[in-house]
Amino acid sequence: MVDLSVQLGPLRLDHPVINASGTMEIFELAETFGPHVLERPPVAAYVSKTVTLKPRAGNPPPRILETAGGMINAIGLSGPGLDVFVKEDLPRLLGLPCPLIISIGGFSTGEYEVIAGRLQEALEQLVGEGWIERAGLELNISCPNVHSGCASIGSDTHETGELVKTIRKRWPGLLVVKLTPNVADIAAVGRAAVSAGADAIAAVNTYKGLVVDRVSLRPYLGNITGGLSGPAIKPLALRSVYELFDAVEAPIIGMGGIATVEDVLEFMSCGALVVAVGSAGFRDPGLAGVLAHQLAVALDTRGLTRAGLLGLAHRPV
Ligand SMILES: Cc1cc2nc3c(=O)[nH]c(=O)nc-3n(C[C@H](O)[C@H](O)[C@H](O)COP(=O)(O)O)c2cc1C
Q1: pTM for the complete prediction?
Q2: How far apart are the CA of 130 and the centre of ligand 1, in A?
Q3: Which protein residue has the closest C-alpha to ligand 1 atom 22?
Q4: Nearest atom (ligand 1) to Cα of 229
Q5: DSSP readout, the chain?
Q6: Would you call 270 a catalytic residue per the annotation?
Q7: Does ligand 1 come within 6 angstroms of the Cβ of 73?
Q8: Domain ranges, ordered by start, for the chain
Q9: CB of 279 sitting under 6 A from ligand 1
Q10: What is the CATH number of domain 6-59+76-208+231-314?
Q11: Is the CB of 52 under 6 A from ligand 1?
């Protein structure tokens, strides 16, 4: 069988399929499906939901709706905040037999700095020096459902560069930057992130959208707008990955509508070294593991190597 392992900065992944932030609650899955989910997670690295400094209630309901070929959500980064994450979630997450990528979101550069600093201290305490091979950081600078900070930073190349430069100085581990597609030129933002020290780019977060309630003919979501995800966004996301691959010398974690092994092949061909399952994981929480297995079979059947597949769409026929 094909060797699917991937080196993502200092993290070694058994295969290239992970989850997209905010779409898999692994402890809830273990409660529903049993402890094997924690013993053999379907993902090669577990990405946390975005952690914020303070507890957040998120946006008013309704916050989520199925749409044609996808879903729209306006959760608005709800969660118990950093203290609870460090005390309750982090020790349990470090018990998983796969690396951990902690997604963080701030409302200023200072907030990102505080979160990164606290996480580093906690990781050093819990794991010791080897933590760099166990855990990485993903800067969410791309949430369309909040109105400042992490929503706007990723829309501006200068702010992105300044934030990444600041965090790079104090975070020695894997540093991923997750980009918003709600910009005119995603490649320019990716370039700014990588030249400021990002190790990898995650693309894309959701597309800002709106759904209208059919009875009242008013916006359905409590937040008015939300983030569109799922198969409906796949061609848009593929274009972003394609452009980023040409623009940056850094690994890309591709996502946006991935639901089948063909989707995985397409993202890798456009330039994704690693892929993430988001919305499709709600329907089938084990999908990432299935896709990894199917990827090995598909490569074998097509006589392709991982290196041959990566960026294939950029090469002439
Ligand atoms: C319900 C929901 C919650 C999400 N929460 C987060 C989050 O906390 N942080 C983040 O960076 N992205 C979040 N996302 C975006 C996903 O990580 C992913 O970028 C996006 O959904 C595109 O992938 P998909 O089409 O496969 O779902 C969320 C998406 C959904 C649908």
Answers
A1: 0.98
A2: 29
A3: 256
A4: 25
A5: -----EEETTEEESSSEEEPTTS--HHHHHHHH-THHHHS-SSSSEEPPPB-SS-B--SPSP-EEEETTEEEE---S-B--HHHIIIIIHHHHTTSSS-EEEEE--SSHHHHHHHHHHHHHHHHHHH-GGGGGTEEEEEE---TTSSSTHHHHTT-HHHHHHHHHHHHHH--S-EEEEPPS-SS-HHHHHHHHHHTT-SEEEE--PEEEE-B-TTT-SBSSTTSEEEEESGGGHHHHHHHHHHHHHH-SS-EEE-SS--SHHHHHHHHHHT-SEEEE-THHHH-TTHHHHHHHHHHHHHHHHT--HHHHTTGGGS--
A6: no
A7: yes
A8: 6-59+76-208+231-314
A9: yes
A10: 3.20.20.70
A11: no
Pocket test for ligand 1, best of 142, 143, 229, 266 (most atoms within 8 A of CB): 229
Per-residue model confidence (pLDDT) at position 198: 98
pLDDT digits (tens, 9 = 90+) for 70-104: 999 999 999 999 999 999 999 999 999 999 999 99
48 lines ligand 1 (CB under 6 A): no
